[in-house]
């Protein structure tokens, strides 16, 4: 190893240690207590979902199943998310996807209590795979980082059983039929046996339509998984309800 290589390695190591220790809030950069990821104020202003649909977990105004689920239920039996995809929560997801890898810890910390409360029976965690090309470009798969961290923290096994074989377009830009077409054949399970009888929890950063996780869940259920559920940090609000409310006002 040359002196320069040694020095660069040292700098990288120190940077990693610094990220792990964290001195400032990941949102506002104010000083925080050691090992805190967000300051009290930023934590309190995250758009937490207080009342969610019992099936998809999206925020609802009145208790009960949301309109989206009445129209077309998700493939996953149940989904839950911590926050609405807005404000500080949306900013964290975007930054995590744009290279600020270390933020997976911040998200996982918020997701942990929800996992423990809502999915005590899940016996394996998994993630939404990316195509090799996309993962190489980003340098990591944030869904895998979240699942790995939550697996470390809960002791639940991490299943690495799926791969993504083709690139898909953003689901929200497509109509229902185009969505199904877009996702068809996107995922492949290379370890089907490991899924037999398991209660699987898919971990991801955001739920938009739920169709991507649904495609993966469908394959897992057909491979013999007992149940497949979904935990995300944010979810996009029920648009149908939003529109009808806007019309009223
Ligand atoms: Zn802050
Ligand atoms: Zn719902």
The CATH architecture of the largest domain would be: 3-Layer(aba) Sandwich
Poorly predicted runs of 5 or more residues:
244-249
* Helix/sheet category: alpha/beta
Instruction: Supply the number of helical segments.
Output: 10
Instruction: Output the strand order for the largest sheet.
Output: 1-7-6-2-3
Return the string of H and E elements: HHHEHHEHHEEHEEHEH
Could you explain how this protein is built, in words?
This protein is 43% helix and 14% strand. It folds into 2 domains: 1-45, no CATH class; 47-248, Rossmann fold (3-Layer(aba) Sandwich), CATH 3.40.50. The strands form 2 sheets. It has a 5-stranded parallel sheet. A two-stranded antiparallel sheet has the order 4-5. The protein has helices at 3-21, 40-45, 67-71, 87-97, 104-118, 132-138, 142-154, 176-183, 211-222, 239-248, and strands spanning 79-84, 124-127, 157-158, 162-164, 187-189, 199-207, 227-235. With 249 residues, it is α/β, with parallel strands linked by helices. Strand 6 (199-207), helix 9 (211-222) and strand 7 (227-235) form a beta-alpha-beta unit.
């Amino acid at each position: 190893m040359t002196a320069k290589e040694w020095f660069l390695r040292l700098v990288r190591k120190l940077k990693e240690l610094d990220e792990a220790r964290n001195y400032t809030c990941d949102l506002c950069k104010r000083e925080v207590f050691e090992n805190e990821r967000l300051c009290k104020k930023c934590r309190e202003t995250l758009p937490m979902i207080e009342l969610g649909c019992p099936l998809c977990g999206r925020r609802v105004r009145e208790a009960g199943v949301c309109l989206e689920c009445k129209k077309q239920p998700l493939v996953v039996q149940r989904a839950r998310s911590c926050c609405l995809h807005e404000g500080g929560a949306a900013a964290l997801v975007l930054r995590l996807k744009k290279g600020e890898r270390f933020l997976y810890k911040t998200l996982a910390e918020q997701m942990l209590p929800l996992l423990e409360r809502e999915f005590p029976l899940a016996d394996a965690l998994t993630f939404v795979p990316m195509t090799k090309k996309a993962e190489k470009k980003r340098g990591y798969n944030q869904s895998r980082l979240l699942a790995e961290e939550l697996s470390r923290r809960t002791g639940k096994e991490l299943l690495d059983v799926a791969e993504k074989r083709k690139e898909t377009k953003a689901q929200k830009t497509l109509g229902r039929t185009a969505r199904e077409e877009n996702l068809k054949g996107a995922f492949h399970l290379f370890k089907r046996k490991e899924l037999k009888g398991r209660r699987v929890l898919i971990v991801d950063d955001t739920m938009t339509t739920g169709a991507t996780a649904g495609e993966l869940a469908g394959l897992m259920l057909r491979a013999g998984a007992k149940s497949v559920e979904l935990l995300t940090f944010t979810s996009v609000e029920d648009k149908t309800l939003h529109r009808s409310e806007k019309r009223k006002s």
